[in-house]
């Protein structure tokens, strides 16, 4: 483990491989920040001009748990907001080993060659444990990371999924205000983080392998239902025939689902990220999606719905935290749980009593 | 529609088919109730002696939205609670047409022949719209309904799923206190009601048809994952071969899932409810489940977990309702949603502001 020290999020905002002790570098950056009493107006100005250092600093403020930083972050995000809408946000998921990094490297490089500015973010609430398993290792995207029109940032760490979600959503706004017009949000194919990423993106892409025997896994976990496209990666060499078979199978599976509100019919594509094959076709598909949903109004509608969802999500989380963290409730809850266990009260009577204390 | 007037829940508590205008009958029953100032002590006493009329009256109190009835219901449920644990609660789901009523008729009659007392409840939050599509039509269980050891009650209606869930859970307690030792809880194979029933039962049974081509549907919706058994109904006549094939397929699908906390390995059974075939085997399986989970402690553990779940569920629902029903919040929420729509604030800033008003 000592070979791979926990990388600070900040280090990623630089476009060349970092050297040496990143954590202490990041700590000193934050100290400088405080010393200079950096002006948020200036930071916003730099950011709007596409300055990646300013963008990295802004995201560091968003990710900080310090109150003064949070206030600055709020100010910054609010200032960036009017400039944040001209992007497409693409969620990318898939189980470990499916080749997410290679896909993003290949797809991102292609987009840049097409004149796009590409930001890559990640949602991985486990990153505080796994030391940033996704995007943490920049060497896996060594070409993309050198591009001046690419910005790569690993998942904010040390937080609940709710916290990671808020920070990522606010980071998206800053990236967009800095002129990044394609935002790729990578997540791992486990747990709730896929649903979270789905609820903050315009297009949701599921990466798959042929013959991995996990066709049913995605269906089971409800991921196929969310997908706007299934891209079967590593469709090269001996894998081409199994990949075509898998394509047929997924196409059949997709027909089981009711039509989407977006009126978009999810597609199955083959690609080889390693050999840069099938990559332009993926972008063509996403462009078609964007055009179609812009025309039928779904694109805007969906973003509004997502905003509403996050508004309610945030409120509900706060209400629960406030209630359960009240010391009066905490001790009474213990008592009531005991009474329930002894079959002396019902869940509903106990709830009613606890609410009467609030 | 005039041929099938909305059936009052109360009418179902009688063991013979009702005649004529049930709603007015039920209304007069409630009036009598009030007039007589029925003693809850007496009702509880009758109920504990297995009196089905008292049980029906008790459930009517639980289902009433009148405050005085609710207080009486609370008192009754609390009194019944210590007597309510000696049952097995079985959730039964399946899409319309799978033969749920026929299965319950056949299974329930078998259980009664084995000396059991069987209560049949339902969770169908749509029943206020569909006029009680499940259990509403008693003629579909015409034998069971005549049994003195059977108690059939349709879903409480005119309520949200949360409301229906609370009422059903409290009704279960009364049924158990009245000596019913097998509680069947039927639900329709759509939406959230299956998850709800799963979270209030000990054993969850998914009814299926062979060759209906919907094998993936249950997997997709996460129902197969919850099932302790898949019972393929109508495995008779020409259907026997397809039923055996479906059994193989479901057995294969079940292997995809991780081991259950209960350590129970879900089984696939064939039955023909119409011809009473395979029914004893279903009960044998459930008895084995019960024995196994009693031994390894899961049975009790699961009921405690369910109680905790419902405690938190109830509290969270109340917290949300209280917040969003505050007139001050209501109008401010409108404003904030408008600001979000105009891209002038973020979901998180809006949430923070709204919470500051509370």
Automatic annotation (TrEMBL), chains A, B:
GO terms for MF: GTP binding; GTPase activity
Pfam families with a match to the protein in the record: MeaB (PF03308)
Keyword Amino-acid biosynthesis listed: no
Chain ranges of the AAA+ ATPase domain: 86-254
Disordered, as annotated region: 1-30
Family that this chain belongs to: Belongs to the SIMIBI class G3E GTPase family. ArgK/MeaB subfamily.
NCBIfam families: lao, PRK09435.1
Name of the molecule in the record: Methylmalonyl Co-A mutase-associated GTPase MeaB
Naturally occurring in which organism (per UniProt): Christiangramia oceanisediminis
């Amino acid at each position: 483990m000592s070979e791979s020290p926990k990388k600070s999020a900040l280090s990623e905002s630089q476009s060349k491989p970092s050297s040496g002790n990143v954590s202490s570098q990041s700590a000193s950056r934050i100290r400088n920040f405080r010393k200079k009493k950096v002006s948020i107006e200036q930071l916003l100005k730099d950011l709007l001009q596409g300055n990646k250092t300013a963008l990295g600093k802004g995201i560091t403020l968003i990710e900080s748990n310090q109150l003064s930083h949070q206030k600055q972050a709020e100010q910054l995000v609010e200032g960036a907001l009017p400039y944040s809408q001209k992007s497409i946000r693409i969620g990318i998921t898939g189980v470990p080993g499916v080749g997410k990094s290679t896909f993003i490297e290949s797809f991102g490089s292609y987009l840049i060659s097409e004149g796009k500015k590409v930001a890559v973010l990640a949602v991985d609430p486990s990153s505080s444990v796994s030391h940033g398993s996704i995007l943490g290792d920049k060497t896996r995207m060594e070409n993309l990371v050198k591009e001046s029109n690419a910005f790569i940032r690993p998942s904010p760490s040390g937080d609940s999924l709710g916290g990671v979600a808020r920070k990522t959503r606010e980071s998206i706004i800053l990236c967009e205000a800095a002129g990044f017009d394609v935002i790729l949000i990578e997540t791992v194919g486990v747990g709730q983080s896929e649903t979270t990423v789905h609820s903050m993106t315009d297009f949701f892409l599921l990466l798959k392998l042929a013959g991995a025997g996990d066709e049913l896994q995605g269906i089971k976990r409800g991921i196929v239902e969310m997908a706007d496209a299934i891209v079967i990666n590593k469709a090269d060499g001996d894998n081409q025939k199994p990949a075509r078979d898998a394509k047929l199978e997924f196409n059949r599976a997709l027909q089981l689902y009711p039509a989407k509100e977006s009126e978009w019919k999810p597609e199955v594509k083959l690609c080889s990220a390693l050999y840069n094959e099938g990559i332009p076709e993926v972008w063509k598909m996403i462009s078609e999606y964007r055009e179609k949903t812009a025309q039928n109004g779904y694109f805007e509608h969906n973003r509004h719905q997502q905003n509403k969802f996050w508004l309610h999500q945030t409120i509900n989380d706060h209400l629960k935290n406030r209630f359960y963290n009240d010391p009066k409730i905490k001790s009474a809850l213990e008592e009531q749980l005991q009474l329930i266990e002894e079959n002396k009260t019902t869940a509903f009577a106990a709830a009613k009593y606890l609410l009467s204390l609030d």
